Amino acid sequence: MSSDTDLSTTTGGAAEAHEQDDLYHHEISDKNYIFIALFLAVLTAMEVAVTEISGVPEALLIPSLLVMMLIKFFIVVSYFMHLKHDSALFKFGFYVGLGGAIVLYSVMLTTFHFFIT
Amino acid sequence: MSDTTTDPPVTPESEGTDTVVADVVPAGYDDGQDHIGLVHHTSTGLSNTKLAMWLFLGSECLLFGGLISTYMLYRNRQGDALGPDQLWDIPFTSATSFVLLMSSLTMVLAVSAAKRKDERGTRLWLTVTALLGGLFLAGQVYEFTVFYREGLGYTTSLFSSSFYTLTGFHGVHVAVGIIMLLALVGMLAKGRIIGDKAETVEMVGLYWHFVDVVWIVIFTLVYLVPA
Known about the structure:
Radius of gyration of chain A: 21 Å
Largest sheet of chain A: none
Largest sheet of chain B: none
Mean pLDDT of chain A: 82
Number of domains of chain B: 1
Shape of chain B: elongated
Strand content of chain B: under 5%
Number of strands of chain A: 0
Oligomer: heterodimer
Helix content of chain B: 55-70%
Mean pLDDT of chain B: 85
Number of domains of chain A: 2
CATH superfamily of chain B: Cytochrome c oxidase, subunit III, four-helix bundle
Order of helices and strands of chain A: HHHHH
Largest interface: A-B, 62 and 64 residues
Strand content of chain A: under 5%
Low-confidence stretches of chain A: 1-12
Distance between the termini of chain A: 66 Å
């Protein structure tokens, strides 16, 4: 047995094997991918429809657009990119970048008084 | 070792590699050349390529976060020049957004076909994805041309500079994605992919989906949220 093999089987190899085994049971069928894509298309249509409706107050319009945007974002990341059922290390790598960007640029926008109307 | 798995012949070359694969492959799964979704022979037991791709995408969040934030700051800084409200053609941009969204579907179908080892299906869906990406890019070029003719140059205002930089950077990412897709189709056709083909397709897929999620954010924040 090589040293690499020993490492993968002794340091978390069993846990990773369990994670990989989970992956097999979370395979999404092509039909379900089509349903997910249709749902995303409907959400996009709803976003456009909300902006086209006149008289919607900004206090309601902007949060609703942001919520729909976030739903679409996490559906694509979770299901199309398979991050929902993927390794915690991959999730960590991506969400640290995403979270870091949100925190960093929120601070930057706050510094420039972006949120003060 | 599980009773349900068949022991592969242990040779000096395979010792320490195939034996581990046999340990983790659930019964009934293929044990061919492409070990899809299996534990990799790395210190983490995960694919280093995939880990690198996710870290790269995490860093891309910082890049696009900076560009989006800059646009948000400057979107009302157009002075007497043209502003977002006079320029946006929401029905047109919605159509191009829909095209990019559907390209994510075709990409995931390509990954799915690759996992089934359906090479013809993989190449077909990858080609369709590249075509949809090309259609989106053509829409963006058309949009830029219209805006330029209406008087919105790159240096017209802070708004125009930040808008073109943000959407231009995204467009370049789409263009790079199309090149990757077409190169992948060619390499698959010529059998030049070394190692796990499904993982290679999945890596290109991750990049492509990321380009799509960035557009999801841009479409809402730039085009739909009122300035």
